[in-house]
Structure formats: structure tokens, C-alpha cells
Amino acid sequence: MKIEILGTPFNGIGSPPNIENTADGLRELKLVELLDSKGCSVKDLGNLEGFQIQDIKDSKTGIMDFDLWVNLSNSLSKKLEGILSRKGFPLLLGGDCRMLIGVFSAFAQRNEEIGLIFLDGHADFHTIETSPTGDPADMELAVLTGRGPDKITRIAKKYPLLEEKNILVYGIRAWDQIAESNIKVFDCKQMKEKGIRTALDEGIESFPGKELPVWLHLDVDVLDPKLMPVMFPESDGLSIEELQEFLSHEWLLGQTIGLNIACYHPVLDKDGSAGSRLVSLIAEFLSQQNI
Description:
Helices cover 34% and strands 14% of the residues. By secondary structure, it is an alpha/beta fold.
């Protein structure tokens, strides 16, 4: 299977791509070359273009850049549909977590049921009523499960885009209202207490379909902020070794059909050391089997 890379170089702090391009930041750290060196087949599709975050609050919904979020989701869905039609393995680089609406819109358009393994420092389960900012990136998981304006929750043929029973959340330190849902959650403390592999196995066993294909969402703020500088740090995150153990075991389960990496900020990673560790980790993860 061929890895197809698509950059989503928007971000929640409004930096234009010529100031900070989150996708190109990972490319500059030799992600593509490293994947090639490990025997992976890689095609780089470049970046999704034309979406600059403005931080303008929508008067009707209270969501920042709401129409842009809808348009971005539709555009990403179309790009992802092309990758899936070619039977590629999608690797989405950069951007923030709002990209998940476009991801699951693509699968809804294809009438394919998949699960989500959500690896993040924040649950991103705010609604318009509870979000402190109106930022799409702190409410996308709630929107995926049908909570929010019709224009975004009913963006595709399926409502909700994702059933709660098909979501596993790992690594959070900020719960963001997710306790009000029926989503299975293993916060960072629980993962460490149970053991990384045990927590992952327990979650997969709770899926209604044990062989359900899954999309893997990795927000880099799941790592401890001492290891990964991020915009909204939460203390006591995963170590590099714990994340590596999670990814290695998750991949061996053989159900992963796509991956996105969110919220890496090159401007915060001034010497590139955190990003280099991340790139090495991702390349090792994707080369475990001959993709």
C-alpha cells in the first residue's frame, strides 16, 4: 500500500503559511526521506491551499471562521476521497484538530463505517455553549457525534458522522465535557496505571465490531510539554517511549487505515529537536509492516 501525504497547513493561531507552515515543518525534518529510507512507498500530494484562519466569530453560531471550517472540511473530504479511491494510506500533516470533520465526511460519503482512535491531550468535546473561545479545534469531537449546527454536523450523508460507540479516546488531561458522553476514555493517568498495551487492548475489545477499521488521530500535545512545545500545554503527558509503545501496539492490531498529525508548531520548536523525535517515531510506526 502506498502512503499518500497531504499537508493541511492551517492552524488555530492564525499564522499564514509563509510564517508557519505546519506541514512543511515536518517535511523539512526529512519525514518523506526517512519513510523512503525505510522502504515505504510515498507520494507527496503537497498542501491543501486557500484556507487561512482569520479568527472571525460567526454571528449566528458563535464559532470562529465557521464558513471557512465548512468549506475546508468539504475540500479535505474530496482530497481524501481521491486517496482512498487509489487505495492509498492517507497521512495528513499539520493543521489543528478541526480537520477530523473533513476526514469522517469522506468516509460518510463512501458509506464506510470506521472507528476513531483519538490520541490527544484534550478531549475537544466542547459545544458552542461551553467553549471558552468558539475555536473549532476544541469542539470537533462533539461535532463528529452530532452536537452543533446542522451545517457542520450534517455536512455529509450520514448523521452523526461518527457513533460514540466507535470512538476511543486516549491520553487526555483536559476532559472538556466528554464525561457527559458515552465515549470510552482512557486518560493519561489511567494509561500509565493500567499499562499502555492493556489500555489499548481494553479499548479495542469494547468496540462493537472487533475488526472495525480505524482512523488514528494524533495531536502532538498528548506528549508531555517538556518534550513537545505546544500552544495549549497540559502537564504530565505521555513520554516518547510511551507514545512509541502505543503506536507500535496499535499498528500490530492491523486495523489502521489512515493517520493525521495535528498541532505541531515549528515556530515553538526552535531547534527542531521535538519535531525530529516525532518524525522518527512516525516513520518507525509506518514502516513496521511493508505498507
